[in-house]
Design a protein that fits this description.
It is a single chain. By secondary structure, this protein is an all-beta fold. Helix content is 0%, strand content 53%. Strands 2, 4, 5, 6, 9, 10 and 11 form a seven-stranded mixed beta sheet that branches. Strands 1-3-8-7 form a four-stranded antiparallel beta sheet, with no helix packed on it. A hairpin with a 6-residue loop joins strand 4 and strand 5. The protein is globular.
Length: 118
């Protein structure tokens, strides 16, 4: 049984930082591209960042470049999203996704709420 579990969300003031973590079990982690998405109320889900299966390449949405950093630990089967300089518009539910590199099968977590508010 595949499990994808996000943690680390919460309430933070503008300019603050949060670190999201995603732990995966039940699959061969290093066969998967890992991604973070987010969905704000009334908006569609959007890609925030992604990292290749070996961690060698990372991609970021323009709206988080220079502020967010994605990383993965294949031994611990975890992926993290370090979020700095948070803005009000970063408020959303953040989802961790695993995409198998050959079949493109996807697995998703339940999401973790990030609220940026003064």
């Amino acid at each position: 049984q595949v499990k994808v579990v996000e943690s680390g969300g919460g309430l933070v003031q503008p300019g603050g930082s949060l670190r999201l973590s995603c732990t995966v079990s039940g699959l061969t982690f290093h066969y998967y591209v890992m991604k973070w998405y987010r969905q704000a109320p009334g908006k569609e889900r959007e890609l925030v960042a992604g990292v290749t299966s070996d961690g060698g390449r990372k991609t970021y949405a323009e709206f988080v470049k220079g502020r967010f950093t994605i990383s993965r630990d294949n031994r611990r089967k975890t992926v993290t999203l370090q979020m700095n300089s948070l803005k009000l518009e970063d408020t959303a539910v953040y989802y961790c996704g695993a995409e198998e590199i050959t079949t493109t099968n996807e697995y998703w977590g339940q999401g973790t709420q990030v609220t940026v508010s003064s």
